[in-house]
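Hi all, posting the design record for the shared folder.

TITLE: backbone redesign
STEP: 1 of 1
STRUCTURE INPUT:
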């Protein structure tokens, strides 16, 4: 059985994606079977990572669909990438004006959800955390990987806060001139949602879309089976299956601190920042997987729960009816726990 691995963004991502999909790479298209369906594999690059899309259908013009998808993704990047200096979001970040500005529908959609999830998670997810991300060396500024002084940490923390960002009637404003918005944590998920919308507009209702580890599936594989997704064991540099899930018509997002981090003074520093203390998270929770109809929401929730830590995350997920699966590190190895709502998806 060929599983669809959820891969986290990291240096080896492309190589691993190729391994995961190697069986399919022999040909871009699986031949039609007795169900009359073929599977088309589209691969490419976006947001500093790779995408893998499987479409199931008959006589699809895969090349034309991929061109459409790429065009959507280029637009998305131009709207919200902090790695593109003249993107809409970068322009907002660089501006010191406090006057509200009209933003694109896409950017407004993502910021609206970011603010909603920020409030829901009591500030665990905070898209204004960018200056702290940069300070710890995980942003576009590529600072040296060192531990910042307490002084610098406090000064940077003062720039951060979701209450400094306002979106009203498609108008975006900041209440402090040096606010910096970083949508990295939900942009990939939004990209997945955007691509699935485009695919469905083209009349395709059986698909798997994956961008940098964020995944959303619908319908059936060309074999008529439901899509199966493998959650990786949280090990750095090694790949094996922790759990197989059948997400049905949903998105799956995994947040984990075992791939993107740096080490200094024998301590491991994650790329996920706890906005409460301004420091990289440091607890026993190693990965959080969320299943939700929206990939953007799943993406944001998984990161928010990762910030919360094991106990808070589980309580938060149960209280809000979130399908979540967490893996925590203990002295006796990894321990996994599912919320009630997640159990239906376990294979
Ligand atoms: P993961 O997949 O592990 O959740 P993501 O790539 O989705 O990671 O999000 C992590 C990125 O989000 C970081 O690299 C940083 O740019 C940003 N980030 C870090 N901490 C937070 C936070 N508390 N709230 C929002 N964004 C964050
Ligand atoms: Mg995320």
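Okay, here is what came back for every position:
SEQUENCE:
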């Amino acid at each position: 059985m060929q599983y669809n691995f959820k891969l986290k963004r990291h240096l080896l991502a492309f190589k691993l994606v190729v391994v995961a999909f190697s069986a399919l790479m022999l040909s871009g298209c699986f031949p039609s079977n007795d169900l009359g369906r073929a599977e088309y594999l589209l691969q490419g690059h976006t947001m500093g990572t790779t995408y893998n899309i499987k479409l199931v259908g008959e006589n699809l013009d895969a090349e034309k669909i991929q061109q459409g998808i790429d065009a959507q993704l280029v637009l998305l990047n131009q709207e919200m990438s902090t790695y593109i200096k003249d993107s809409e979001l970068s322009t907002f970040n660089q501006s010191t004006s406090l006057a509200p500005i009209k933003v694109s529908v896409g950017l407004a959609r993502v910021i609206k959800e970011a603010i909603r999830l920020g409030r829901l998670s009591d500030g665990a997810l905070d898209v204004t955390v960018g200056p702290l991300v940069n300070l710890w060396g995980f942003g576009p500024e590529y600072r040296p990987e060192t531990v910042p002084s307490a002084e610098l940490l406090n000064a940077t923390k003062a720039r951060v806060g979701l209450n400094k960002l306002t979106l009203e009637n498609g108008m975006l404003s900041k209440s402090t001139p040096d606010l910096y918005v970083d949508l990295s944590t939900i942009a990939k998920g939004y990209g997945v949602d955007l691509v699935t919308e485009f695919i469905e507009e083209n009349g395709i209702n059986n698909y798997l879309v994956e961008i940098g580890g964020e995944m959303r599936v619908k319908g059936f594989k060309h074999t008529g089976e439901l899509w199966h997704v493998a959650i990786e064991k949280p090990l750095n540099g090694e790949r094996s299956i922790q759990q197989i899930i059948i997400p049905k018509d949903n998105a799956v997002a995994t947040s984990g601190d075992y791939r993107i981090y740096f080490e200094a003074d024998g301590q491991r520093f994650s790329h996920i920042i706890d906005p409460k203390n301004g420091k990289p998270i440091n607890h026993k929770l190693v990965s959080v997987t969320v299943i939700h109809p929206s990939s953007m929401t799943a993406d944001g929730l998984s990161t928010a729960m990762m910030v919360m830590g094991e106990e808070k995350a589980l309580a938060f997920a149960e209280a809000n009816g979130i399908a979540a699966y967490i893996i925590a590190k203990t002295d006796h190895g990894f321990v996994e726990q599912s919320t009630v709502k997640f159990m239906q998806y376990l294979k």
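COMMENT: The radius of gyration is 20 Å.
Let me know if anyone wants the other runs.
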